[in-house]
Amino acid sequence: MQKPVLDFWFDFASVYSFLASMRIAPLADAAGVSVRWRPFLLGPIFAAQGMSDSPFNLFPLKGQHMIRDVQRSAEEIGVGFQWPSTFPQSGVLASRVALIGLKDSWGEDFCRAVFHAEYAENRVISEQAVIADILTKLKVPVDATFAGTLAEDIKAELRENTAEAQQRGFFGAPTFTIASGEMFWGNDRLEQALRWAKK
Q1: Considering the entire predicted model, what is its pTM?
Q2: What is the DSSP code string of 60-108?
Q3: Domain residues of the chain, as ranges?
Q4: Confidence tier at 192 by pLDDT (50, 70, 90)
Q5: Which one of 81, 144, 173, 184 is least enclosed by Cβ atoms within 10 Å?
């Protein structure tokens, strides 16, 4: 019998996507749910809503609370966290590499490593050297992978994911969707999304 599927929509610029990425695999495995990782870009969605920056920068009090909230959550799940010097960061390169990796066996490990580099090590994930270092540690060919990020089908897939997210009415990340189209927003809705995926 085929497992129910949960789509995990994430943006590397989203700190709550970082938390969800560190929790989702064991929780989904225990729930008997398959996860499909779906990178997309929040920037165009925010821009269409008239925002020129992350809501956490546009609303400083919200941003200050968010940092403390993420610190508490990271401590509870046992992952390192430090607020990055640059926020938000461009996730275009990392997302394209992720799309290549998710067609192979190393995609999820790559995604978690990118989030860790950004939010636990304060590294800038838009820099090729940072992504190259992650790929090297995963024993993935660097030059061939970077060449793959320039392929039109990979560029188109990221655009299509972002367009689909916008068409579905997404306004943040992480967002989880199930076969019925039901949508759940936020790291704190992951468990509920998994329960509904099984309905």
Answers
A1: 0.95
A2: HHHHHHHHHHHHHHHHHHT------SSSS---HHHHHHHHHHTTSSSHH
A3: 5-197
A4: very high
A5: 144
